[in-house]
Each structure stands twice: as structure tokens, then as C-alpha cells.
Amino acid sequence: MKEEKTNEQKTVYHRIFLVSILLKGIDGILEIIGGLLLFIVSSAQINQFVLALTQRELSEDAKDIMANYLVNAAASFSLSAQLFGAFYLFSHGLIKVILVVSLWRQKLWAYPAAIVFLFLFIFYQIYRFSYDHSWWLIWMTIFDILIIFLTRREYKNLKSKQGGIF
Fold first, then answer.
1. For labelling, which of 3, 15, 115, 156 has a CA lying 20 to 30 Å from the CA of 105?
2. Neighbours of 6 (CB within 10 A)
3. Is the distance from CB of 134 to CB of 128 less than 8 angstroms?
4. Closest to 136 measured CA to CA, from 25, 120, 144, 21
């Protein structure tokens, strides 16, 4: 009876692990696309897009905080910020996609690598939170901690089945 419960728990954890890395993979693909778009699109085009996006809202309420924030942010979006954003999104997304594909294929080396990169992402998210105070960063950090826990668990299970380190 106890062994059946343990196997059910392993199955539930495994499914949660698969869903969470699938979400990370989708996020990685979106980051790659976003990074490529930032490489391709000019800052003037970004500014025009934000103006078109916020025009109706600002015509209804000229003091709308979010719309004004977006307009001001787009107007002050420098080329160096654009290039950094493009490089960051593309490389961050590429790392995620490579790790997700490798985890999906159960490559033993990918589990410790994913844990290391997730810790690096967490440290960066905490650093960014100290400036932005964005709750989105907190939720991403909690999600990454969950994935670290699940990845470690999956790694131990897979390693015990396959044996060896790599």
C-alpha cells in the first residue's frame, strides 16, 4: 500500500515537472521571438507602436498613469537599452529552450545545469526586484524555486534508474 502511494506521488511530481518545464520552454520561445523582434524593430517603430496603442486611452484620460508611463518609457528607449534587451531576451530564451529540450530527453547533464541556471536567474530576479519591486519577479522566482525542487527530484530518480553521473 505504501509503495503504491510512493509511486503515485512520483507520477504526480513527474507530471508537474513536465508541465513546469513545458511552461519554461514556451517562455523561452517567446523570449527568443521577443529578442529577435528587438533586433529587427527600430526604437522609432517601438515609439510609434506605443503611441498608437495608448492614443485612445490618453484621449479619454490624459492623466492615465499606465499609458503615460508606456509613452515616456518608449520615448526614452535608447539604442543601447534596445540592444541589451534583445541580447538578454534572446540568450535567456535560448538557454531555457536548450535546457528544456535536454530535460525532456532526460539527458543527465541537463539536470544540474538547469539547477545552476535557475539559481542564476533567481539571483538576477532578486537583484531586479530590489530596483523594480515587481510582484511578477517574485512569482517567477517562486516558480523557479519549484522547478529547482522538481528538477532535483527528477534527477535523483533518473540517476538511480540509469546509474552514473552523465
1. 3
2. 10
3. yes
4. 144
For the whole model, what pTM was predicted? 0.74
Residue owning grid cell 552514473:
164
Q: Measuring CA to CA, which residue among 134, 43, 22, 26 is closest to residue 86?
A: 43
d(CA 150, CA 115): 10
pLDDT, tens digit (0-9, with 9 covering 90-100), for 74-127? 887 788 888 888 998 999 999 999 999 999 999 999 999 999 999 998 998 899
Q: Could you give the CA distance from residue 86 to residue 92 in angstroms, rounded to a whole number?
A: 10
CB 54 within 8 A of CB 70: yes
CA distance 164 to 31: 34
Domain coverage including residue 104: 2-162
